[in-house]
Amino acid sequence: MASGLLHKFLHLTNFRSPFLRTAIPGVAAAFALQAAVGVPSTLLQSERFYDASGSATFLSVALLSLYLPALRARAAASLAGLPRPPLPSLLHAFTGRAGGFHWRQVALSAAVVFWSVRLGAYLFRRVLHQGHDSRFDAIRAEPAKFAGAWSGQAVWVSLCLGPVLAVNAVPAAALAAVPPRATDVLGLALFAGGFALEIAADRQKGRWLHRRQEKLHDEPFMTEGLWSRSQYPNYFGECTLWTGIATAAAGVLWTRPAQVGLGFSGGLVGKLLTLAISFASPAFVSFLLLKVTGVPLSEKKYDAKYGDRKDYQEWKRNTPKFFPKLL
Fold first, then answer.
1. Which of 169, 184, 229, 268 has the most CB atoms within 10 Å of its CB?
2. Which of 178, 175, 183, 187 is nearest to 69 (CA)?
């Protein structure tokens, strides 16, 4: 039965456009996975699995987009009564062997996997320790709004993974026709730097909270380490890593072999479309963190608690909100 459903799904999404052939299944999977966790969570009024399910959806959709061509080939062989070809090896992408994946596809998909596993585990541990997530205090008991948060997370996954879905939609042979570019190096470097910054900021905050629980200090809010350079260094790292993924993707998607591989003519419209798909990712993340959930909710909470304290006012006045100060 499961095999039949998979064949039906692959048939329904077998569009002529290589990009849609990858993007539509990925977006559909994102909404399906969020619904599978969101519906019972809404009924139970529990946000315990919100961040964990988001990270799992990122991981699942990234891997689905990477393996979709192989899954389609295996499904076609099965329907024709032929032996199913083996799944391609990830290592072959870096050895120059023809067929299978291209190293850019593996690198960007792996970046998403590493990020999603790390952040998902961190946030899941945090919500288990705290027992709740204050972001949902106002909407947890309102089914429509709470369900909207899960749908919004599916939108977040879909938009953020846009550049990865696009790169994975390009045939490996077309990507192989594009030699290494400066945007490959710059993009992966930005991802690595942003990822490292986010990890460091979260660990510093975790150690600070642990010391406070152990009564080793009585500071009400954190102003040390990276948090003395930026009020939200973890958010800066998050936006930076997605900018890196977008940069690496856009650099190769702009080229004619990739444009043709996506079913575009290679003209200006196709190039602008791939740029929009790529950079919608960090733009949406930045908007979400700076204007909707991250900074506004945190600032409102801390301003209410510490807004009348001179040390808090001084920290806010002297510390950049987003871009870290170097000196």
1. 169
2. 175
